[in-house]
Write a structure and sequence with these properties.
One of its GO terms (molecular function) is helicase activity. The chain has 158 residues and is an alpha/beta fold. The chain has one domain: Rossmann fold (3-Layer(aba) Sandwich). It has 6 helices and 6 strands. It has a 4-stranded parallel beta sheet, with helices on one face. A hairpin with a 5-residue loop joins strand 1 and strand 2. The protein is globular and about 50 Å long. The chain starts with 12 loop residues before the first helix and ends with a helix. The C terminus is likely disordered.
Length: 158
C-alpha cells in the first residue's frame, strides 16, 4: 500500500499510522480456516514485519499487545493469516543499511511468505524510483515494483 512520506530512514510514523488503521479494519473481519470454518479475526492472526528495530518499537507502541511485531529474522518459520510489512525508509537513498538490505529478495520473500492469506506491503512511492548502479540493484527494485499488493493500492483498490 502506498504511503507517501519524505525524510524517513529507520522510523516512518506515516506507515505506523497506516498499519494501525489496517489492523483496526482487519480485526472487524473474518478468517476462513482450511476446513471451511469461519471465525472472527483475532489479534494473534496478524503479524507485522519491519526492517529496523526503531520501526518495530514504534509499531509495538501503536498496536494492540496481541499483534506480533518484529523484524524478518524474528518470524523465520512462523506464519499467520495476515502479514503486514513496513518498508519504513522514504527512499532507497535514505536507507541506513543500503538498498541491498532493504530490498533483499530473501528478506522480502520471507516477509510476504509469512502470510497464509493476505500480505500487505506498506511503503513510500519513492522506493520504486531508486537509482540503480548495477543489474542486481535493478532486480531488487523490480521485486518491490512487482508485488501486486504494492501496485494495487496505487490504483485505489486493496
Amino acid at each position: 500500500m502506498s504511503v507517501p512520506h519524505e525524510g524517513n530512514a529507520q522510523i516512518a510514523p506515516e506507515e505506523v499510522a497506516a498499519i494501525q488503521a489496517a489492523v483496526h479494519q482487519l480485526l472487524t473481519g473474518t478468517w476462513t480456516e482450511k476446513d471451511g470454518t469461519t471465525r472472527s479475526m483475532r489479534q494473534s492472526d496478524i503479524i507485522v514485519v519491519a526492517p529496523y528495530n526503531a520501526q518495530v518499537n514504534g509499531l509495538r507502541d501503536a498496536l494492540p499487545d496481541g499483534i506480533r511485531v518484529g523484524t524478518v529474522d524474528k518470524f523465520q518459520g512462523q506464519e499467520a493469516p495476515v502479514c503486514l510489512v513496513s518498508m519504513t525508509a522514504s527512499s532507497a537513498e535514505e536507507t541506513p543499511r543500503g538498498m541491498d538490505f532493504l530490498f533483499s529478495l530473501n528478506r522480502i520473500n520471507v516477509a510476504v511468505s509469512r502470510a497464509k492469506g493476505l500480505a500487505l506491503v506498506f511503503g513510500a512511492p519513492r522506493l520504486r524510483e531508486a537509482k540503480c548502479e548495477t543489474v542486481e540493484q535493478m532486480r531488487l527494485v523490480n521485486t518491490l515494483c512487482a508485488l501486486p499488493v504494492f501496485k494495487q493500492n496505487e490504483r485505489g483498490s486493496a
